[in-house]
Design a protein that fits this description.
This protein is mainly beta. 13% of the residues lie in helices and 63% in strands.
Amino acid sequence: MRVVATGPVGVWHLRVGRTEGRVGAARGMELTLQEDGSCDLTLADAFVGPTTGGALDLAARFGVSGLLLGTWRVVAYDGDAPIVQLGPVRSEAITVHPRGRRGFAMPAGPILGATQGWLDRAAGTRWRVHPTEDGIEAVSSDVGPTVTLVFGKSR
């Protein structure tokens, strides 16, 4: 991890998320943090959610693609770990599509209603970011329960 004045810049892929210790499932999400404070989350046939049968069945049939754009900045340090605060996030061309070669992508507007509420609440949240063996881990309790996101370095 390279930490500069603006924090842990780089390109990271989401490996797993945990809420209050309960492990979730994730795939197809790449986070880019740039030195100028801009960030984007690329969704490529993505899924993130609980590891329950219903959610995993849905993930086996459908994916989400598109882009989330936002900003971030380091607001403090906890020892060597930067505390990163997120700015507002907006979605660009988010679609839902069946997995495989059949079917076509549909705009995800109606489906994103609940997600947009979460994105709105995520603006202003603070995340303690520290290095792992081959990536970074971000932890926050700002949106309710403690959420931990584990990212690996994208090659």
